[in-house]
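Possible race condition, two jobs.
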Amino acid sequence: MRRGKLALLVILPLLVITACEPLRKLDPVWSATTLPGGPAARLTDLDAASADLVIVVGDDGEAWVNDGYGWDNADSGLEIDFTGVALWGSHAWVCGVDSADHGRIYEYDLAGNWTNHDLGANAAWLAGIDSAENLSAAVGSEGQIWLNQGGGWSLYYEDAAYLWREVSVDQSGAVLVVGVELASSEGCYALFSPPETPAPATISTLERLEDGQLTSDNTAWLVDRNGILAHLSAGVATQKATLGFIARGLSAIDDSTCWVCGMGGSIARYASGETKNFTPDSSEAFEALILTSPEEGFLAAQTQVFTYR
């Protein structure tokens, strides 16, 4: 009897202490989400203004929107393979290519309406699009750079020596385009602010740049097709990591942290000199990702979306 009381006296304080301790916050994980009407034919890009506004696009004119309460089908009904998407306010710019390999740009107003912005017959295959404030840019083959500075889309630059894969527009008005110089197969970029003329520069240590994102008007993250990650500052590209997979998309948090996704269900986070790999339960190609905060993000796989939280 005494022994039982003593045991109870020992256990009760432990229970009190345990109850008063704060619960340890679990680390975020990447988890798959089934899209309504899915699986998708092939997702290619996504963008997010916040966790309450996300849009993902893909082949066959497919699109889905998440307003914070779940994903809704926003299929365009167009015979267009969408390749890029960029949110601006309550609208989204979506670029792609038609059956004749002509670049196309559409505006989606998040109420379900799709509007074509005719670029004419000279628009080449478009691969990427981005927007900030009153400046939007789209890029693709033939070295074409299209800009919209509030008065409609127009061809700003063209040089068939280059193929552009992606574009990043900063709030300052700076524009970064990344891709490859076709003759040398070296990674190439151009960083400019309109009305400046782009001056492409190659990086001999990198192959075709798959993605890049500005963190200011003169700093950016770059990743080439082989998964070599580099940081660009004042015109100098410094290699930071070799990720070990074929890279497709990049999302920067700041000048010390960024995420990269790629083939075979590969995701890596680089932070202050250390690389951490994540292994979601998928072998699909991971095409694009965006982090809305250090602990929340979204990723477009081939047929489904992954959420990080």
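Job #2 (started ~2 s after job #1):
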Amino acid sequence: MWRVLILTFLGMQCFACSGGISSYEEGVEAQSEIMQEMIGILEDVSDEASAEAAVGDIEALGKRLAELAVQFSQLPQPTTVEMQALVRKQRANQQEFQNKAFPQMTKLAQYESLSDAWTRAVTNLQ
């Protein structure tokens, strides 16, 4: 479970981008939205059946993260100063995400198929 938590946390600190974005900042926002959607899916898991139903949704979001990673690779690298500014700006969002995500992480430990889907999804973070 800690591995998943670490991957999730690192994912929130990584920068990716979505369709049509033109900056790392837009990418950070797009990635944050997807990660928030993933947590929203976990919030709806209450038993094995809902966990199994959530697997497809998590995997679909993982594909979106992979698409973002491809687009991210096409952006020019930000300078160190720009990267530091992005990290400072996103610090509050990261804390909010962690506060919302940590209670849901126990569900990944409870349902192996859900944990596997989550791990595959967050490995798409770049």
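The CA atoms of residues 24 and 78 lie 7 Å apart.
Logs attached separately.
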